[in-house]
Amino acid sequence: MDSRGLGRAALAALLALAGAAAVAQGRLFVTSEKDNALAVVDLARGETVATPALCRRPRHAQLGPARQRLYVACGDDGRIVAWDPAAGRIVERLEVGEAPVIFDLSPDGRTLYASNQGGATLTAFDLVAGKKLFAVKVGGEPEGVKVSADGTLVYVTSEVAGVVHVVDVAARQVVRTIPVGQRPRRLLLAGRQLWVSNAQDASASVIDTARHTVVSTVAFRPPGMGREDVTPVGMALSPNGKTVYVALGRADHVAVVDVARRRVRGYVPVGRRPWDVAVSRDGTRLYVPNGLSDDLSIVDARAMKALRTVRVGREPHSVVVDD
Length: 323
Prior knowledge:
Elements: H1 3-16, E1 27-32, E2 37-42, E3 47-50, E4 58-63, E5 70-74, E6 79-84, E7 89-94, E8 100-105, E9 111-116, E10 121-126, E11 131-137, E12 142-147, E13 153-158, E14 163-168, E15 173-179, E16 184-190, E17 193-198, E18 203-208, E19 213-219, E20 235-237, E21 243-247, E22 253-258, E23 263-269, E24 278-279, E25 285-290, E26 295-300, E27 305-311, E28 316-322
Antiparallel strand pairs: 1-2, 1-28, 2-3, 4-5, 5-6, 6-7, 8-9, 9-10, 10-11, 12-13, 13-14, 14-15, 16-17, 17-18, 18-19, 20-21, 21-22, 22-23, 24-25, 25-26, 26-27
C-alpha cells in the first residue's frame, strides 16, 4: 500500500473512532500566507512553539474527525494538505483544483467541499476514497463555504456576483441563488440563520435557511469610522449560540453581535487588519489573527478587551483552536 493508501486507511480508522471524545491539546494553529507555514501556539505558555512548513500560500484550516488531522487550503498549490499534529508532518495531499480558498467538511467527515477561485467552482472531494467526486460551476471568485447541518446542501459565496449559491449535494447543481451585499466573503451557521460577511458593504446579511431569503442586515460602524473603513471577513459563533464575533479587517476591530436581536453589542480593538476569529471551547477567549501586524490577539470575550498579543507568521490568515 502506498503512502496515500495508508493515509486513507488511517482516515477511515479515525472516522470509525470519531464518536469518542477527542483529547484537548491547549493549542492554536495559525496559517501564514507569506511564510508558507503554520504557527503552533501553546496556550499555556502564550507563545509560538513551532512553525512547520506547509505549502504555498496556506489559507483556511479546519480540524477533521477526532481532531487528529488539520486540513489546510494551499492557495498557490491547487491542493489541500492533511497535516498530522501528533507527527508534525503532512500525511496526504488532496488535488482539489485551482486556487482553493475556503472549505468545509460534511457532518460525517467523509466529504470535503472547497471553493476554487481559479475555476469559479465548488469542488467535492471524497476523503476516504481519496478522489474528486464532482465540481459545480458558481459565480466568480467563490470564497465562503458552509455545509448544512444535515449535509444535503452546501452554501458558497461569490464575491463578484454578490450572491450566495445553494448547492444540492444529491443533484450536484445550484438550486438557489440568494443576493446579499457587495463582495460576500465568509459564511457562518447559527441555528437556522446563515450569516454572510459582506466585505465592501461593511455589513453581514442574515439568511433564513428555511426560506433561503435575507431577513436582516447588520451594519458595522466602529466609532469614528465610515463604511469604507470596515471590511468584515471571518466570523465565529459563541458555544452557547448567542453571540457572533466578526473580524472587521481594515477597521482593526472585532464586532460583538447579539444573534437573537441581530444588533451589535460593541467593538473590540485588536491588531492591524484582523482577518479571522475563533472562540475557545468555554467561550471566554477570542483568538484573532492580524494580517498586517503579523500577530494574534487574545481577547477576553466577557470583558470585550484584548489581553495580549502573540507573534505568529507573516500575514496570518486563519486560526483553529484545539483546546
